[in-house]
Structure formats: structure tokens, C-alpha cells
Amino acid sequence: MKGKALQEKLLAAVALLLALCIAGLLLFWHPVVEERALPRPGLPPGGDFRLDSAQGKITLPDYRGKIVALAFGYTYCPDICPTTLATLADALEQLEPTERQKTVAIFVSVDPARDTVAHLKEYVAFFDPGIIGATGSPAALAELGQRYALYYDRPKENNAGENYIIDHSADIYLIDGQGQLRDKIAHGTTSTAVAQAMRKLLKGNR
Question: Pairing relation of β-strands 152-153 and 132-135?
């Protein structure tokens, strides 16, 4: 009987000890989960680019360690592009100074025939002087468009002369500090949501 009583006491002591350990873990153990930016399913491959700007040639590796917000369009666009650039500029304005220093915004024109690098610099500065205006040869833009699943086309019907329009997709692409495409933000998304997406990527970029 004494042996059985002693065994019961030992089991009770072990159970109490385990309960105390579990309670201590719940109260005092707060594991830090590292937040990593992961690519959204279905994103195009993205990748490097080599484009012309008023500052000279720019490539994606030039911005290693920073996130890159990439937008496509053209300066003669009547509505979509000004909206995209205004959204992008306002999103950049919402970032803290240290976050802004780690973020690069590039507006790529798909209309190199009219958009010179000097004109692009002047155009994007109207929205934010920090935005870089860039373009490239038709072949370079076509290759870049394939890797970013970008659609753009100059309709032939009723679209002759110098004041032609170009149909194009208008997403904002977010690229991390290692040059990997991580997110594609649809046109019409609020600037606050764009800024939040940038911050999320910046956290995973540390």
C-alpha cells in the first residue's frame, strides 16, 4: 500500500511539474516568426532589364538591396498612366524616410518613338522627382514585356498620325532586393494598399 501511495504521489508531482512547465511556456515563451515576402502564385518570371534613362543606362542589379516598383505606360496616355503615377507617388509619400531610401520607382515607357529620356524625366518629376523615367528599343521592350506578361499594342483602326494611343496593361510590379518579382498590383488599387504592399516587402527584404 505504501509503495502504491508513493507511486501516486510521484505521478501527481510529475503531472504538477508538467502543468507548471506548460503554463510557463504559454506565459513567457514568445517565439519570433520571421516574416518573409513570398511570390504570389501565378506571377510571371520577371527578371533583369537594361533600359535608357536621363541618368544613363539602368539595370535591375543596380538596385540590389532595394525594392523596385515598376510601372509601364507612356507619357501621352490620357488617363491610366497619370492615375498610376499619382497612386505610386502618393504611396511613396506614405513611406517613412528610411523606407523611402530603400525603395526605387521606375516608370517604363512603351512608346520610345515619342518618349525621349529627357521628356520622361520631366514628365515623371511632375508626380515625384524621385521616380525614374526609362525606355528602350522596341526589341528590348518586347523582350521585357514577355518576361513581365505585359500587354501593349497600338491599334491600327482610327489611330494614325502623331497623336496615336497605345493600349496597355497598367499593373505595378514589386521586385525585392534580390531582383525577384514578388507582387503585381492591379490598376485602381489605393495608394494606401500599395504602400502597405511595399512595407511588407521591405520587412522581408531585411
Answer: unpaired
Same domain, 3 and 95: no
Give φ, ψ of 43 to 5 degrees: -75, 150
Instruction: Give tens-digit pLDDT for 6-15.
Output: 455 544 444 4
Number of domains in the chain: 2
CA pair distance 205, 192, nearest whole angstrom: 20
Amino acid at position 53, single letter: S
Q: What is the CATH number of the domain that holds 71?
A: 3.40.30.10
pLDDT in tens, 65-74: 999 999 999 9
For 173, phi then psi, to 5°, come to -100, 135
147 alpha-carbon distance from chain centroid: 16
Question: Is-contact 147 46, C-beta < 8 A?
Answer: yes
Picking from 122, 119, 131, the residue whose alpha carbon sits closest to that of residue 89 is 131
Same domain, 54 and 23: no
